[in-house]
Specification:
Bound molecules: S-adenosylmethionine
Strand content: 15-25%
Order of helices and strands: HEHEHEEHHEHEEHHH
Strand order of the largest sheet: 3-2-1-4-5-7-6
CATH class of the largest domain: Alpha Beta
Radius of gyration: 19 Å
Low-confidence stretches: none
Distance between the termini: 39 Å
CATH topology of the largest domain: Rossmann fold
CATH superfamily of the largest domain: Vaccinia Virus protein VP39
Shape: elongated
Mean pLDDT: 96
Helix content: 40-55%
Length: about 230
């Protein structure tokens, strides 16, 4: 079992004593660690692929950890869990839009989940926007390294509010790089922000060579860069 800092960070986000469903569990490492460490009294492992779920079963078997057969479930998204069956839903390692599709499929069921721990591979800003506009309040942000990537682990709790009008549009830089990042590991934050600043600089250089007027786009990117620099100055 190879446990990356990303998987450790997802475990760290779980609340002791809460039951968990890990949707898209694949190898089942996160639920295995949460159960082994006594953090979660019950762990549902769910995956759309029977082959992936077989890996999760293998993880528990290899560590001689017996759990009810019913904790291993094959199916799409939240279809495999009942309303209110678990306190926490973890969805990690999937694209942000896939995560939103899973959470949007049955809004009444999603509302019965107390805590969401989400680790989108991309479109994290869109995920935060969805959470805000669907009554979830983000309570923790963790940055963790896996390979050359700095990954984001977003925790949110439900019932904070009725669906609310967002304070700024979905493509605003503040969804992708929220103020809460200031509580994250400083070196990882610097790396994450540095990467984004480089990509903005490259885009601005290219736009300056355009034959059409790109001044509005350049102005907006420069404002984004100013916002980002404040995290690391
Ligand atoms: C890249 S793996 C991530 C595994 C693990 N969660 C992690 O973070 O390391 C993605 C897994 O999600 C599963 N998956 C993709 N779409 C799904 C869906 N709609 N419902 C359930 N599982 C899904 C895939 O079969 C695969 O096992």
């Amino acid at each position: 079992m190879r446990i990356s800092d990303r998987l450790t960070a997802i475990c760290r986000a779980a609340e002791p004593g809460e039951s968990v469903a890990d949707i898209g569990t694949d190898h089942g490492y996160v639920p295995y660690m949460l159960y082994r460490d006594g953090t979660a009294p019950k762990v549902i492992m769910s995956d759309v692929s029977a082959g992936s779920l077989a890996k999760a079963k293998q993880t528990f078997a290899e560590h001689e950890t017996k759990v009810p057969e019913d904790w291993f479930r094959v199916g799409d998204g939240l279809d495999t869990i009942g309303p209110g069956e678990v306190d926490t839903v973890i969805i990690a390692g999937l694209g942000g839009r896939t995560i939103i599709d899973i959470l949007s499929a049955d809004p009444d069921k999603t509302r019965t989940v107390h805590r969401l721990i989400l680790q989108p591979r991309n479109a994290a800003g869109t995920v935060r926007f969805w959470l805000f506009t669907h009554g979830f309040r983000i309570c923790e942000e963790i940055l963790a390294k896996e390979g050359k990537f700095v990954c984001e682990v977003i925790s949110a709790v439900s019932g904070a509010s009725e669906p609310t009008a967002p304070p700024y549009p979905e493509d605003d830089i503040r969804w992708a790089y929220p103020e809460m990042f200031r509580s994250c590991d400083a070196a990882l934050l610097r790396e994450r922000i540095g990467w984004k600043l480089s990509s903005i600089e490259e885009e601005v250089t290219n736009l300056r060579q355009s034959s059409t007027d790109q001044s509005e786009r350049i102005r907006r990117l420069s404002a984004d860069a100013d916002y980002l620099r404040r995290f690391i100055e």
